[in-house]
Amino acid sequence: MNMEHILQLTHVRKSYGIGSIVETEVLHGIDITLKRASFSALTGPSGSGKSTLLNLIGLLEAPSSGELIINGQNTSQLSDQALTQLRGHSLGFIFQFHHLLPAFNALENVMMPSIIDSQHLSKQQAMIRAKALLSAVGLENAFYKKPAELSGGMQQRVAIARALMMRPPLVLADEPTGNLDTHSADDIFKLMRKINQEQDIAFLIVTHDQRLAARCDQTFNLVDGHLQQKTTD
Amino acid sequence: MTLNFEWLLALRFLREGRMQSLLILAGVTGGVAVIIFLTQLINQLQGSIIDRVLSSQAHIVIRPAEESALRLMSDAHIAANIQPRGQRLRSIDQWESIAQLVRNTPGISAVSPVASGPAFARHNLASKSVALVGMIPNDYRQVVKMNKYMIKGEFNLTGDQTIIGKDLANDLGVSQGDRIQILTDSGTQQTLTIVALFDLNNKDLNKRWVFTTLRMSQSLLNIPGGVSNIDLTVDDLFGAKPLAQRLSAQTGLLVESWMETNSGLLNALSNQTVTNNLIRVFIVIIVALGITSVLVVSVVQKQKEIGILRAMGAKRGQVMRIFLWQGAIFGALGSLMGASLSFALLTLFSNVYKAPDGSTLFAAQLDPNLVIMATCVAMIVGVLSALLPARRAARMDPVQAIRS
Ligand SMILES: Nc1ncnc2c1ncn2[C@@H]1O[C@H](COP(=O)(O)OP(=O)(O)OP(=O)(O)O)[C@@H](O)[C@H]1O
Ligand SMILES: [Mg+2]
């Protein structure tokens, strides 16, 4: 165990349809190590397994084999309950299609992870933190707007604020700019980079955009379920 | 705060699916209203029917064993017709000791010895066949609440006094203070003074019953010191039958409860209860299926939200309880609204449907116990109906939701 690393993947494989005739292995033994407060890109052609890998790291799915250590904790023996807890505390998610709760306003969406965890902050403290986060992503005027009333870029900012609510050491972003125009995409990227540098939060960002990938500390390139190369600046 | 989360999500989801929520709420409301309304209606009607039947009847009557064919009290006219002239009325052997035994039996609240038999009442040229009822007023009042039925005078008499019904008084052309002659088969006759008149809301009894002291009837019916029957009041109305059977076994006498005398009525009432229960069960099933189907649809609609919540750290149990709460809310809200609706219906019915004499057939009352029970049942049914969709929600794969 290495506390210098926020994430360690060793020989991680993922197959779908195990036991059936259509069993397919999507990831063929992945090894990745992420340092704390690092800023990394994950690239690769469509269907290469990027989302699958991110979902494994996000503890939303279990690997078929291999080892996954997050924040110093080996996840292979953990119960569903414990995985959920680890996910809530150690990981933040940003998805391509923002995935906000439509019934709740921006502030409530950002507070939601804290509301889910009764042990976290009091409602008052949670609200203060959520407002600060929304202000930090430039949405001080949109606290009480529902997602449908916000532009795509603004929705993605709410999602970023939400991902930071629990102060996770690692944020996973699956094509966070994929659905935005170039200008907004650049803004969102800069915002994540700023948070990474100011708050020492590690980011792993799936992107198709080679220009953005080049601005990261390191890039993992996934082709057909194999990690092809690893470039580090 | 986790309860907070589940509540918050449950309420927000309900509000989001406004149309579905309102429809199923209306369904639960209607179902609960019908159940409460029917139950209240039937309970009240059955209660008042039984009240009416028992107003002039003892809960249990003890008679001499051999006289099983004779029902001297209510069927006195039959007795008068079929009993050969001159035959002596049978009395209960050693009735004092039997009365004592019965008094000491738990579950019996009143004991009234009665000397009853056929007679003729005469005034001037009018003569009517009647049933003499000789009793001790203080005891008898505990069995038949005569105080309620007095229209002139008190239910109390001594010596050569009598109390008759208003219809017999009309037939004979007499009133309070007048004197009538009583004649019996044994050839005895006596002039009695009318001290009070009663109205039992029953023309037949108003024409027939002639109350005297126990001693007076004993002498008129030629059963000195004897009684023809012992009337009893019990604490538990519907325990009368087994109690009567026990007393019969103990004494060897003919002991009959109101439940046997009115078995036809009781059958009808119990059939009504069975029908009511059947209706209730069907309504509960239909409402439960309604809640389940609405929530199943809701779970499918909320698939994406559930996935997001799971990704943000919501545990399976938390997701499950969101939907269980919704079921409970449907049940609680629906039953409170249903109780109000049924109260409105009862008020309407009690105003529209009245007895022929204009009095209300039933009061627009809600039994609070019934409402509490209905609410509890509705909440439990709500939660149980939500169980299936809630488990589906809890087991949903968050990845599936996020990918789509
Ligand atoms: N539940 C599943 N069952 C079977 N196959 C799956 C499942 N989920 C993903 N796959 C397959 O795994 C492969 C990798 O999919 P994944 O979504 O990880 O690719 P990706 O790199 O994210 O692609 P994109 O750039 O288009 O998002 C695909 O071939 C996909 O069809
Ligand atoms: Mg993908």
Overview of the molecule:
- The complex is a heterodimer of chains A (233) and B (404).
- Chain A has 233 residues and is α/β, with parallel strands linked by helices.
- Chain A is 34% helix and 27% strand.
- Chain A contains seven helices and ten strands.
- In chain A, α3 (106-116) packs across α4, α3 packs parallel to α5 and α5 packs parallel to α6 (182-199).
- The longest helix of chain A is centred in the last third of the chain and has 18 residues, at 182-199.
- The model of chain A has no long low-confidence stretch (mean pLDDT 89).
- Chain B has 404 residues and is of the alpha+beta class.
- In chain B, 57% of the residues lie in helices and 17% in strands.
- Chain B has 15 helices and ten strands.
- In chain B, strands 2-3-8-5-7-6 form a six-stranded mixed barrel, surrounded by five helices.
- Chain B is elongated and about 105 Å long.
- The model of chain B is unreliable at 67-86 (pLDDT under 50).
- The interface between A and B is medium-sized, with 31 and 27 residues.
- Magnesium ion binds at residues 50-51, 174 of chain A.
Helix fraction of chain B, binned, reads 55-70%
Mean pLDDT of chain A: 89
Bound molecules: adenosine-5'-triphosphate, magnesium ion
Q: In total, how many domains does the architecture of chain A comprise?
A: 1
Helix/strand class of chain A: alpha/beta
- Tell me what portion of residues of chain A adopts beta-strand conformation: 25-35%
- CATH homologous superfamily designation of chain A: P-loop containing nucleotide triphosphate hydrolases
- Between the first and last Cα atoms of chain B, what is the distance in angstroms? 30 Å
Number of helical regions of chain B:
15
> Which strands sit side by side, in order, in the main sheet of chain A?
6-7-8-3-9-10
The CATH architecture of chain A can be named as 3-Layer(aba) Sandwich
Percentage of residues in strands of chain B = 15-25%
CATH topology value of chain A: Rossmann fold
Number of E-state strands of chain A: 10
Radius of gyration of chain A equals: 18 Å
How many strand elements of chain B?
A: 10
